[in-house]
């Protein structure tokens, strides 16, 4: 699965099969988090995996009672270390850079899990104090997200996404997009890929037709 395909087909899953996730997959997912960009390469995050029933139950409760989470056999809780970024970049480091770095790590993990045939959901609704207590976190750390991981037991419809034309401006806010606007979609990687696949198929079919004609009528 190429990266764009993984990005396009990833879904948030809220119902999981009663099936264990191989440990090496969990490690690969955390490795993917590790390779995310971070301001000054500080890597000011920690990933806490949680597999035990009691703890998953307690965390699901702390996530404002999202009980469906318990069906996922593994959670990864992403913890930020804002104090490390503050040392170098002040308030901007502690807030913006730290949150963005963790978000990049989270998305890396979601996409890697998806590429391994696993399903995930990014959980941001939680009582931070409660998770902080459940995981014995030091005072200065902050909880960024809980990621549920498991095998999907549902196939949700893809949620509606705006067309690209609705989120792109040219050069400035409200800046006109090169006309015609409706062609913007044709420049996307996805469509480039579709055109490429179409050409490949046409070439293959052409070859088959030629072979068929040759076989049927032969060369005189
Ligand atoms: C910052 C953030 C917080 C989220 N928190 C929750 C959450 O608490 N519970 C939940 O079920 N989904 C949560 N989601 C998942 C979104 O609901 C989901 O990404 C969105 O509906 C689009 O669906 P998709 O992920 O399948 O594209 C969160 C996503 C993000 C990025």
Largest sheet: 4 strands, antiparallel
User: What order do the SSEs take from the amino end to the carboxyl end, as H and E?
Assistant: HHEHEHEHEH
Structural class, judged by helices and strands?
A: alpha+beta
Ligands bound to this protein structure? flavin mononucleotide
Portion in beta strands: 5-15%
* Mean pLDDT figure: 93
CATH fold-level assignment of the largest domain:
NADH Oxidase
Provide the spatial order of strands within the biggest beta sheet.
Answer: 1-2-4-3
What would the principal axes of the Cα set say about the shape?
extended
The number of helical elements comes to 6
- Spatial separation of the terminal alpha carbons: 47 Å
CATH hierarchy, class of the largest domain? Alpha Beta
What is the domain total for the residues?
2
**CATH homology superfamily name of the largest domain:** NADH Oxidase
Rounded radius of gyration (Å): 23 Å
Low-confidence stretches: none
CATH architecture label of the largest domain? 3-Layer(aba) Sandwich
Give the total of beta strands. Answer: 4
Helix content: 40-55%
Which labels suit this protein?
6 helices, 220 residues, 4-stranded antiparallel β-sheet, NADH Oxidase, binds flavin mononucleotide, alpha+beta, 4 strands
């Amino acid at each position: 699965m190429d990266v764009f395909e993984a990005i396009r087909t990833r879904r948030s899953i809220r119902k999981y099969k009663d099936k264990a996730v191989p440990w090496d997959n969990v490690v690969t997912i955390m490795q993917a988090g590790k390779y995310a960009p971070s301001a000054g390469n500080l890597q000011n995050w920690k990933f806490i995996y949680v597999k035990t029933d009691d703890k998953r139950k307690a965390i699901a409760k702390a996530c404002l009672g999202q009980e469906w989470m318990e069906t996922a056999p593994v959670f990864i809780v992403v913890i930020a270390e804002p104090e490390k970024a503050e040392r170098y970049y002040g308030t901007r480091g502690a807030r913006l850079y730290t949150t963005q770095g963790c978000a990049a790590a989270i998305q890396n993990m979601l996409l890697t899990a998806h590429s391994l045939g696993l399903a995930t959901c990014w959980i941001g609704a939680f009582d931070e104090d409660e998770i902080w207590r459940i995981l014995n976190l030091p005072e200065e750390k902050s909880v960024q997200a809980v990621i549920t991981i498991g095998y999907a037991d549902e196939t949700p419809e893809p949620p509606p996404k705006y067309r690209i034309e609705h989120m792109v401006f040219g050069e400035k806010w409200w800046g006109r997009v090169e006309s015609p606007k409706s062609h913007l979609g044709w420049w996307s990687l996805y469509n480039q890929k579709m055109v490429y696949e179409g050409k490949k198929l046409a070439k293959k079919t052409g070859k088959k037709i030629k072979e068929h004609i040759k076989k049927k009528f032969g060369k005189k």
